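I keep forgetting this: the sequence line spells out the residues, with the fold written below as integer tokens. I include a record here:
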Amino acid sequence: MAFDSWLGRVKTALSNGKNPKSKRVAVLSFEVAGVMSRLLHLYQSLSDAAVVRLRNDAVSLEGALKLVSNDESFLLRLARAELAESVRVAAGSVSRLSCMCHDPFLRSFHRVFTEFANSGYDPHAWTLTNPKEIEAKHKKLERYVSLTSTLHREMEELSVLESALRKALNHSSNNNNGEPEPCSVNSKDHQKLCDLQQKIFWQKQEVKELKEKSLWNKGFDGVVLLLVRFLFTVLARIKVVFGIGHCVPYLSRSLSASATVFPSDQNPNSENYAIHVSRPFKSLKLDGNGDLGCGGFFESNCKLLKPMNGTLGASALAFHYANLIIVMEKMIKSPQLVGVEARDDLYAMLPSSIRSSLRSRLKGVGFSACDPVLAGEWREALGRILGWISPLAHNMIRWQSERSFEQMNLMVPKTNSNVLLLQTLFFADKEKTEAAITELLVGLNYIWRFEREMTAKAFFEGCNNSFNGLLNVNHSETHLRT
């Protein structure tokens, strides 16, 4: 009987091994965790607080209004397009994973998701609509990402320890001419090997426990279904936020109740905040059907993200100009610390178009810069220009670094705000941006020369006073001797 029972368990194990439904996530855990992290970040960028910031801050950013567009509706379409592109990229990752599923419905994810994006039709009811269910799934994703990220670190640590052990064994073998080192209590090498082996043992235990808790040992189809449902919910949220098509009831009520917050200041904890729930949320509603035009949802939004001719994005200068503006900002704040070499380095950063306009502006300008009133006016003017162009430059650097971080790391960093391309120099008008940069350079040139002349004047006055003082001392000594 015992043999029959054992044989039955073996047959069951073999049968389960051949059953696709028993497939585990395993080594794909880290890729899946990366997709989950991006979906969580996307959902955070569509929270009620983020929508309020988008409406009150992003689309009213002075630099964006001056250099990108003063049409609020156009800026909102850019925001929607970037969020839609992030969803499209995430959907591509989920689509690749769904092709490996056993469930035929999940294998058809790409077709169903595209249909949902274009028409709002959700045949499998994959969109989460219950607030408690959304919150539960959100926490589940966060837990999986956290545990899988920890597993990744611990597996790397295990790899390092095992590599150290191999090196120690090779070193020991070489010292003994290929013969194993005899065990000796007093042997330092032997003790080192024992310590490493003990560490590896405990590290393997830690990894084993994390594999059980994290995505590693979870059913593949179930995890992909979790991704699919959350992705549907994120896309539904985008449609609600921007007023596209038919809205999901719960998501619509949520947005109307909490995202229609009109602040009297920028402090979200202020008692002056008033919540208006009596009227529907219209602030991000775009004309018509969200101005999607012809084509599918993702195709139409993708076209919007392509920078138009005459923008810094189209000429691939956005990142370079951002660095240039930040360098000038530092120089303008402390012109007295700027040496000739740093000034030459700045000039070397300028493209030919700005050099040409700068030479034209500096024609006829005298070599003297000793007027303190004019220097003060230039400082004020430069401060005003930096006040609206500097945020775009810093946002450009931040946007680039965030995308680089996402590509290099498993988890997307948790931030309270999400920088969008419309808040950077990417869509900025090239001619207007270069005019502003030229103005900064002309002003910097004056206050830089003013500071040098004032420094030189103070130096010569100091030297003159010292020389006169020395003459007076010598005259006094001569008078005493006579």
Notes: The first strand starts at residue 261 and ends at 262.
